UniProtKB/TrEMBL annotation, chains A, B:
Belongs to the isocitrate and isopropylmalate dehydrogenases family. Its cofactor is Mg(2+); Mn(2+). This is Isopropylmalate dehydrogenase-like domain-containing protein. GO terms for biological process: isocitrate metabolic process; tricarboxylic acid cycle. Keywords: Magnesium, Metal-binding, NAD, Oxidoreductase, Signal, Transit peptide. It comes from Eruca vesicaria subsp. sativa. SUPFAM superfamilies: Isocitrate/Isopropylmalate dehydrogenase-like (SSF53659). Residues 8-333 form the Isopropylmalate dehydrogenase-like domain. SMART domains: Iso_dh.
Amino acid sequence: SSSTTPIKATLFPGDGIGPEIAESVKQVFTAADVAIEWDEHYVATEVDPRTNSFLTWESLQSVLDNKVGLKGPMATPIGKGHRSLNLTLRKELNLYANVRPCYSLPGYKTRYDDVDLITIRENTEGEYSGLEHQVVKGVVESIKIITRKASMRVAEYAFLYAKTHGRKKVSAIHKANIMQKTDGLFLQCCDEVAEKYPEIEYEKVVIDNCCMMLVKNPALFDVLVMPNLYGDIISDLCAGLVGGLGLTPSCNIGEDGIALAEAVHGSAPDIAGKNLANPTALLLSGVMMLRHLKLNKQAEQIHSAIINTIAEGKYRTADLGGTSTTTEFTNAICDHL
Amino acid sequence: SSSTTPIKATLFPGDGIGPEIAESVKQVFTAADVAIEWDEHYVATEVDPRTNSFLTWESLQSVLDNKVGLKGPMATPIGKGHRSLNLTLRKELNLYANVRPCYSLPGYKTRYDDVDLITIRENTEGEYSGLEHQVVKGVVESIKIITRKASMRVAEYAFLYAKTHGRKKVSAIHKANIMQKTDGLFLQCCDEVAEKYPEIEYEKVVIDNCCMMLVKNPALFDVLVMPNLYGDIISDLCAGLVGGLGLTPSCNIGEDGIALAEAVHGSAPDIAGKNLANPTALLLSGVMMLRHLKLNKQAEQIHSAIINTIAEGKYRTADLGGTSTTTEFTNAICDHL
Ligand SMILES: CC(C)[C@H](C(=O)O)[C@@H](O)C(=O)O
Ligand SMILES: CC(C)[C@H](C(=O)O)[C@@H](O)C(=O)O
């Protein structure tokens, strides 16, 4: 109830449609009487010399202090030398695991029924090392880094997640038949952790085969854990099975219990400010944040309201084939609470 | 007709189910009166010192001499230090482009209708460089190499393919937002080649988004060209859309007009020798080989016979839900000729 001392949480509304969908989250959370006090931070218009990026020092500090936050889409300013702000945030805050649940939304039909997948992506290294150079003219190389440290912690997170969420199986996704050393080390870490969870089924699946099986029969999988780029690819593929990134939440996990929930779709500048955006991914990410905070009752209440609104089908935004505005859709969710 | 001087072609029946499905191809080709003289080569049981692999020197020479061949699945002997024979063949013969058409087979229902995609994969470098090492204990790296030479030739092949096959669009698949130098060079080469084909629509698509769009709506794509690993992943994903690797052909293209058609599924040791294997992927690969040889009439005749047999549904192997043996299925195709 609103008399509880509010929990402070960082909010990055982000760019483009970000502020509108963040508004929707605030409205729904208020309607559900969630005792959250938002500490709002926007992307700066100039580089902050203390972070050397468009992310202000205060905003990073806010996440470190609150240990919990919610993030909308951030557009990276165009021009040479700017790294994606989404990535900068993950790296600066050492958000080592990216959890993306993909499940069929009742009432929203795709080619697939009853999808229920959790992808857990290593979020700090691999192909995202940023190490690249020209060897000679016309020959360039990129370096993929896999460490025991990062692989162990994401593997541990994945198995712990599986156990605490009543999941039956963890699949480690790899291409160790080609990258024997890097993906081999990743698998070795997964093997080691799997030993400690005899109750969880464990398998290793080559990424190409995994993608083929996912489109043929996603029910073969449950929790999937993998290096950074494979996670990037497979989480989008899985999102596609249930309707796309506009409908799927995510949460980034860091050391010391930090959790930054994030809508991973784009900032959709073409429809920004037009009250047309679908806030579902950010709302569901907000639900993940509430679950992380153990505010389970309100999390389930909001979750049901979102699901029921979409299932009912009366109020849907344009991306789902409807004609509702963001506000109408948000109001409908509040009415379902 | 059979009075034509036969064209010599190399045949690698391969391992596991390989010999059985190769037998099926020979039978169908004979029934269709294709004037091919097969030069058959098997994987050796010992390393050939002249090639330093289980591929004999004679077998490689045969492809170089005949400039055309057909290959079944090869199992790589287990044990340290053996590179995949499939890859060795691609590298040794400089087979720079791997073409994998994925199209819906009439009468074989999947979740997707009317899929018609061509993936063209760079086949010699990228993440498959084999360059890997341990930096310090617990830290390993793999090196991805992209060269202008290999990128140009695969891009040129893709656009030429699109033009000569009446295709409308080429999509270059990449992750240049992260690997700006390597994937950036790949894209730059595609850009350059695209300039020479103003009649072909050209777009660049980030791999994660590509996978999401492929599962949502494969009709958005036509010809896709990409670096090695992305090609590995996306070609399997596309195969999954239409039923899997048992149904999709491929052809490897090398310099000097060399073409080695290849069934890219596994050797399925569990069903080997049991007359249960589905020869479709190797048969359709054989059809690609015939088209490469401009034996278009017989290619279309055999193609129709395969398609019609599957569509009719009376004779299907177990993987397609039927009870036919390889022989029964093959006989049915011959009857449809
Ligand atoms: C925007 C891009 C750099 C990012 C990534 O590759 O991780 C995105 O695709 C994601 O998955 O969050
Ligand atoms: C067997 C394996 C090494 C190979 C590859 O990765 O290229 C296979 O997946 C393929 O696509 O032909």
